[in-house]
């Protein structure tokens, strides 16, 4: 199978400081070109998130993590690569609300909300499965140059992935206060991609 996202060349610094270890590496693509602005996340015990970093213009990253006898798992995400790999079916449903819509909702609640009441702030029409979100990004952000690949291991339950969750929030009470979400998930990811590209150019 084709390499996932990027090729990882990871060098371990074995100097221990206060029971910590420094994980250093350089990210390159299949042509050995440096991959910048990629997100690197470190996990121990399969699913416990420790710390993350973003690769620099040379593809280098550095993460300080506690010593773990069970080893480390690095998860690398890079929006510009040709494949997005899912290691589950992606059936869990995700509720969405863009930051500016959430801020407007908070301001409205501060002035119009009832004390002691609970309000859901979400874009009801944009509740999607993880797989659907991956396909949305591949289609609209990647201009169909990105493909979604399912690589589900036989013993997926041992990898520490969260169980499938179907949670559908209803924002009717917020809408009764004349609040409406304005930014779709597609537009949100398009904005994110534009921001990442601008940061790469400025870097």
What can you see in these coordinates?
With 203 residues, the chain is α+β, with helices and mostly antiparallel strands. It has four helices and ten strands; from the N terminus they run E-E-E-E-E-E-E-E-H-E-H-E-H-H. The protein has helices at 99-112, 130-141, 172-175, 185-202, and strands at residues 7-17, 20-28, 39-44, 48-54, 60-66, 72-77, 83-86, 93-94, 128-129, 147-150. The strands form four sheets. Strands 1-2-5 form a three-stranded antiparallel β-sheet, with no helix packed on it. Strands 4-3-6 form a three-stranded antiparallel β-sheet, with no helix packed on it. It has a two-stranded parallel sheet with strand order 7-10. Strand 1 and strand 2 form a beta hairpin. Helix 2 (130-141) crosses helix 4 (185-202). The radius of gyration is 20 Å and the shape is globular. The model is unreliable at 1-17 (pLDDT under 50).
SSE topology sketch:
Blueprint: E1 7-17, E2 20-28, E3 39-44, E4 48-54, E5 60-66, E6 72-77, E7 83-86, E8 93-94, H1 99-112, E9 128-129, H2 130-141, E10 147-150, H3 172-175, H4 185-202
Parallel strand pairs: 7-10
Antiparallel strand pairs: 1-2, 2-5, 3-4, 3-6, 8-9
- Given as residue ranges, the uncertain stretches (5+ residues, pLDDT < 50) are 1-17
Report the span from N to C terminus: 32 Å
Largest sheet: 3 strands, antiparallel
Order of helices and strands, N to C?
EEEEEEEEHEHEHH
* Lateral arrangement of strands in the main beta sheet: 1-2-5
Anisotropy-based shape? globular
Number of helices: 4
Q: Would you count the extended β strands for me?
A: 10
**Structural class of the helix and strand makeup?**
alpha+beta
Approximate strand percentage? 25-35%
- Rg from alpha-carbon coordinates: 20 Å
Helix content: 10-25%
Mean pLDDT: 81
């Amino acid at each position: 199978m084709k390499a996932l996202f990027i090729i990882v060349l990871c060098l371990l610094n074995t100097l221990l400081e206060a029971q910590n270890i420094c994980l250093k590496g350089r990210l390159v693509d299949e042509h050995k070109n440096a991959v910048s602005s990629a997100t690197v996340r470190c996990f121990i015990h399969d699913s416990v998130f420790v710390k993350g970093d973003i690769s620099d213009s040379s593809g280098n990253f550095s993460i300080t993590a506690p010593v773990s006898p069970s080893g480390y798992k690095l998860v690398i995400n890079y929006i510009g690569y040709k494949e997005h790999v899912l290691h589950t079916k992606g059936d869990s449903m995700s509720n969405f609300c863009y930051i500016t819509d959430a801020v407007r909702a908070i301001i409205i609640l501060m002035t119009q909300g009832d004390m002691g009441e609970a309000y859901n702030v979400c874009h009801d029409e944009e509740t999607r499965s993880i797989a659907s979100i991956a396909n949305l990004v591949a289609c609209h952000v990647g201009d169909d140059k990105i493909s979604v690949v399912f690589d589900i291991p036989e013993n997926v339950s041992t990898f520490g992935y969260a169980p499938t969750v179907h949670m559908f929030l209803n924002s009717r009470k917020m809408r009764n206060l004349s609040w409406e979400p304005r930014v779709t998930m597609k537009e949100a990811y398009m904005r994110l991609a534009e921001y990442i590209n601008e940061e790469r150019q400025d870097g």
